[in-house]
């Protein structure tokens, strides 16, 4: 269903992503790891057409999305929702309106200007917030919520688009370990319950191992590892991060002692 063939991005003389190739034949949860500057964000942004690829193909069910323009490109972007480290919410707007922004691509300019939403969409937005365990915050301004809650609002906004793929660019990098686990579990639940594909850039190995079915490692713009969490040994991780023998996984850990059991659903929190 998703196939990257020699996807490359250059910024001037700098090759941010060099001939990245991999294919995914069923919805799964994929973690992309690598040190800062390895090309993870650029790779994700090319999949969403936020950054145009310099060369190569990104085939989705056989269609090369790097060639899309105008309405076709926007249509693909609505099927391929993006979540960012800094949430990208409208801080002064209430939570439910932020979630409803996920429907912007299919609403008229007039409806957008007057903040008019169909009742069905409002009900769906609240249902999604409920599923993520934050419906009680629906009337509050987004800026009044904690980071973990704001990221779940961003996930709710993404779900409003009913996407096939969710791309998450360092979704937990700004969160404390407890909230990081809530957000990762929410993404995992969405994958398992809805059958959506989730691809997340992650900066911690234990998170990639714990939540993902497959891990892709990038180093200096190249994919240097593509395998299961079990294959991601400390030695492999050391190669991905270009670290020496002193490399310690503890430096990339989000584990906390108090949250020993994996929460079954976010709604239970
Ligand atoms: N818009 C841009 N213009 C010029 N260079 C860029 C641009 N975006 C990224 N780069 C460069 O491309 C390379 C890869 O950056 P990218 O942000 O994709 O890495 P990353 O693995 O996501 O890093 P981080 O974990 O720090 O976000 C870096 O050398 C970066 O400086």
UniProtKB/TrEMBL annotation:
Residues 2-245 form the ABC transporter domain. Keywords: ATP-binding, Cell inner membrane, Cell membrane, Membrane, Nucleotide-binding, Translocase, Transport. The keyword Chaperone does not apply. One of its GO terms (cellular component) is membrane. One of its GO terms (molecular function) is ATP hydrolysis activity. This is Phosphate-import ATP-binding protein PhnC. InterPro entries: AAA+_ATPase (IPR003593), ABC_transporter-like_ATP-bd (IPR003439), ABC_transporter-like_CS (IPR017871), ABC_transpr_PhnC (IPR012693), MetN_ABC_transporter-like (IPR050086), P-loop_NTPase (IPR027417). It comes from Sulfitobacter pontiacus.
